[in-house]
Amino acid sequence: MYAVNEGGKKTGLKIRDGCFFLFAGAFLLATGVVGGILIGIYAYHGGPSGNAIQVECQVQSSNSLNQQTTAGPQQTTQKPANNPTNPPTSCSVCTKRDPFLASIDHELFAPLTEKEMERVRSALIARGIVHTDLDSQITLKSNYIAFIDIHTPNKEDVLKYKYGNGVYPGRQATAIVYRGGASPPDIMEYVIAPLDKGDSLQVTPLSAPGENAFTAREIDYVERNAALEVLRPIEAVLLPIVRESFDNANFQSGDLHWWPYEGPPGMKETLRELKLQLYFNPGRKDGDFHLLDMLPLALIVNTTSQTPNDWNTYDYYYLNQGPFGSAQDLLQAYNRGSIRKIKLPSGYRDTVAKRYYTGRDDSKPLRANAFMPPPRTYEPKGPRYTIKGHTVGWMGWSFDVTTRMTRGPALFDVKFQNKRVSYEISLNEIALIYGSDSFERENVFYTDAIYGIGYYSGTIPGVDCPEHGHLLDTSYYDAKTGQAVTTKSICIFESDGEGPLWRRMANGYQSGLRDTCLVVRVAATIGNYDYVVEFHFKLDGKLATKVKATGQIATSFWDADNPNHGNLSTDDSPSARDPFGFRVGDFSHGIIHDHLFGFKVDLDVVDTNNSFEIIHFKSGEVADAFRQINPSITTKPKYFRYNQTRYIEYETVQIESGFRVNPMEPKYWTVVNGNHRNKWGAKRGYAIVPMATATQTMVDAHPAMNAISFTKYNCAVTKHKESERFLNSLFDAFRMYNTKGDFSTLLNGEGIVNEDIVNWVTVGFVHVPSSEDMPTTTAVETGFILKPFNFFDTTEVYDMPQVYSGNDGDVQKPPEFTPCLENK
Ligand SMILES: *[C@@H]1O[C@H](CO)[C@@H](O)[C@H](O)[C@H]1NC(C)=O
Ligand SMILES: *[C@@H]1O[C@H](CO)[C@@H](O)[C@H](O)[C@H]1NC(C)=O
Ligand SMILES: *[C@@H]1O[C@H](CO)[C@@H](O)[C@H](O)[C@H]1NC(C)=O
Ligand SMILES: *[C@@H]1O[C@H](CO)[C@@H](O)[C@H](O)[C@H]1NC(C)=O
Ligand SMILES: [Cu+2]
């Protein structure tokens, strides 16, 4: 029925000259684009709308192709692709062009390699900083490595090395070590360098012993497994409740599990309270979970002590009823009938896996033509980009791409037309605050960097990266095995925008340039969500950074009889609603939350001597317009017809400050270089333009807010400092009342005029899950665009071939090509 284009071997098609294709009968092609559409279309045989006919692969001359295109679609005759006037020609495979250039040894920003991570680990072992016996299990009293990340050299050193006469700063790494064996136990961060040379590796601590309390670490597999052990005897006590309430479930059947990641375990460093909730997840493997069937039974394990034997449990809750001091207390109340009970219908458990299933639903009729392959892009002469190690070049752009295990993807040294635009654009943090009317999930919040944004585990073929794209390596360190894992997770491809980057049809000419862009895409699974980060480089100097959220929502148990609200099915009164979201399944409730993505955006407009200027888009009385520029004008000049007008006001921000998007006060946030002006006397600059975005609306009193205070600003600007590398401390969510990296403290009044400045850009969305978020949530997108703003003297595209056709006979065409077979 459905066959892929593999020379017909699998499809059983009769192939002549290697280039016969089958098309659905009604598929007519404009001759002008026959080659482009024909190539790469999958063989399609039969299907509901059936009736396939054979079409020969036709190659037309490039000239006629271009003539047709220039003439415009209204003049293009439509004819079947098997037009007999065009003799069949055999198709050749498109030119293959390898984008990979000989790679260099010394990459300043490339992700750490497995070998480098191994060197880091060996160095830490050799110095006795971490315990090694991987044979004996890591315990809470071990010193072990949690993360190894690239430590990018100091900016000044990099710039001197690349653009001056400085020495090579060398490859460096940071390692985060959980020192359960230290006294007091703590978290240490080290810089290990230089990684490129054989000997004299330096290990430099970034924090003092004890400075970062051990209890500020994330909930890792060591703690989780120990907690699960503590729960074993408790499970036996809870079994009668679990059997009766949850469709005869038991703890051995493999579909019932404990979920330990209910946000940070408490608020104080001195008390670590791990909340664990039951949920259904048939066939769960380590690191893989579905959070769509959470059950209303949870408890606290006090994991403060480093000896799991000391751990006590309390705050047992069943259907929001509690707290009970122990499993026995809960069981007693349950048996006495003094608490409200829930009884899932018999057979419910068997429906769980089916509802998670994300393959096609066979019970639904297929949409017309749904098994026909969708359109796709191919590259007639191969990729137009080059890749040297992790340095990418394309159409005037060049940049380095990297990923970090904790904080995710980053670009460095981004240049356009040989001028530096940005030194660094890096994802730093993803913050979410949930709200739910349940003991289990009442106030979950996450800062994802500490859980690891960069555990990149490869791409999903056919989904993540177009077939003509190329993949780059990235690695992460697996604390459990002590080994680095390398995957091909950075996808690079050129994308056809299939429309105008610009167009102009005017008296006497029609002209334009088709939009194409280079995309760097990295997709990661972080807990229940999958996040896709993309950088889009445009021909005109714009650079869009986008982030998409997809994957699975987090849910809580849907309690139809929750006394805190009325009867949803029958009652139309406000009380029938839940203040925390909608019911999205039989026993599932989608819990409301937001997603806020914090980026470090270190623009260097031409060089590092920059200022932050805001262009306020105002309106008012005409005289107001002159107030800033020429205050002597106090009345409206006569030539203004109306008393009111639009105007702009200029503001050079003097000291470190943060700003929010406000549609009622539109403005341009620009980074400018006062020493470099365009032909028209304006300071050369780049504007930072957020896409549609939310801002943090949580009240300051919320205990998470110090840990994620960066979310209060869509754009904040600070003076560049090596001591302010990231917009927060990784650990602050785990020490909310004692934060050390509160972003607001970075805004401490330093001057930012004619300085090396950094913009911290936070964008995101709020999410009220609806039934369409089940079982998967389709991608939602936000981001920000960096846009040249008086950077060039004119539109920076005219060093490219343009499409032009004028009355004077001047005709220009896009580059010619011979249609060819997609080369995969
Ligand atoms: C939690 O555990 C610590 C260390 O064992 C103990 O000192 C503390 O009293 C416990 N807290 C509660 C609430 O049980
Ligand atoms: C809510 O209404 C439905 C439909 O009428 C009914 O079956 C259910 O028992 C009601 N629940 C409560 C708590 O009243
Ligand atoms: C414009 O402003 C002048 C001076 O204040 C006033 O006299 C006049 O009425 C205004 N015109 C209109 C159309 O409002
Ligand atoms: C930045 O530019 C200003 C204005 O031209 C100048 O006074 C200052 O010395 C420059 N700073 C650096 C570090 O070059
Ligand atoms: Cu969401």
From TrEMBL:
Residues 79-90 have a biased composition (Polar residues). Its EC number is 1.4.3.-. The keyword RNA-binding does not apply. The keyword Cell division does not apply. Residues 64-90 are annotated as: Disordered. It is an enzyme of class 1 (oxidoreductase). Coiled coil: none annotated. InterPro entries: Cu_Am_Ox_Cu-bd, Cu_Am_ox_TPQ-bd, Cu_amine_oxidase, Cu_amine_oxidase_C, Cu_amine_oxidase_C_sf, Cu_amine_oxidase_N-reg, Cu_amine_oxidase_N2. GO terms for cellular component: plasma membrane. Topaquinone (TPQ) is generated by copper-dependent autoxidation of a specific tyrosyl residue. GO terms for molecular function: copper ion binding; primary methylamine oxidase activity; quinone binding. It comes from Dreissena polymorpha. Pfam families: Cu_amine_oxid, Cu_amine_oxidN2. Contains 1 topaquinone per subunit. Keywords: Copper, Membrane, Metal-binding, Oxidoreductase, TPQ, Transmembrane, Transmembrane helix. Residues 67-78 have a biased composition (Low complexity). The active site is at residues 448, 529. This is Amine oxidase.
